[in-house]
Automatic annotation (TrEMBL):
PANTHER family: HTH MERR-TYPE DOMAIN-CONTAINING PROTEIN, REDOX-CYCLING DRUG-SENSING TRANSCRIPTIONAL ACTIVATOR SOXR
Protein name in the entry: MerR HTH family regulatory protein
Organism of this sequence: Parafannyhessea umbonata
Domain HTH merR-type: 6-80
A single GO molecular function term of this UniProt record: DNA binding
Swiss-Prot/TrEMBL keywords: DNA-binding
Signal peptide range in chain numbering: none
UniProt keyword DNA-binding, yes or no: yes
This protein's record includes keyword Metal-binding: no
Gene3D superfamilies: 1.10.1660.10
Amino acid sequence: MPDAGYLTIGKVVKRLQGQYPDLSISKVRYLEDEGLLNPSRTPSGYRLYSQKDVHRLETILYLQKNRFMPLSVIKQQLDGGEGHVSLVQTPCPNVGEDDEEVLQKFHPIDRMPELLGVPVSFVRQLSEAGVIQLRESPHGRSLVDGKDFQLIRTCGELRHFGIGPKNLRQYVTAANRESAMFEQALVVFAKKGGGVEMERTEENRQQFGQALSEMLALTGQVRDTLIRRQISKTFSEMEE
DNA sequence: ATTCTCACA
DNA sequence: TGTGAGCA
């Protein structure tokens, strides 16, 4: 019997067959032959998969299924940047079609695996990182806001690239700083448009929304450019 | 009961 | 990739 934290190949397959129905034991072994996986072994030769191994396998399956990546490419990406497999520019396939019903309600955290395809522990970590806020039910159960579903799914995608809740924390603090900046900018914007007093008309509201959208797009471009510049610099340094 | 390797389609 | 034989 394997030690705590390690799973045999059968357990691993059963655990992941929820998300990847066509996963088989032979396929997992095949992936190992191709050099994408290297679990430890018991003295008798049985494969033992650590949490890391399982997560790596999840990433491979995700890349293959949702991203249609050939195994050869996945291998290169995974080996190249131990941890961050970024530099993939395909946008997320929108797996998120929640109806109003789901969106307006709060849902028990235990149902996140079936609802969003992410582990409960992951949702808790997002909460600890400040990305989302959990609510307590009268019975002491943790509830998740339906409005956060899309955000959680997005964070779940990021997880496959080695970007987890810890890394996301910086986006929370960044969002706080930036929202303060935008609010200030909107005040200035309001004074320029409608005199000292700002009326809360519907028209005003739309202008605010539009101004905010523009600011988000523009600052986003700045951010994109700066990041790409830094990355290309890093890469050119590597080739020397 | 399960997994292992290896040969093979 | 997947299957089946024969083992441990």
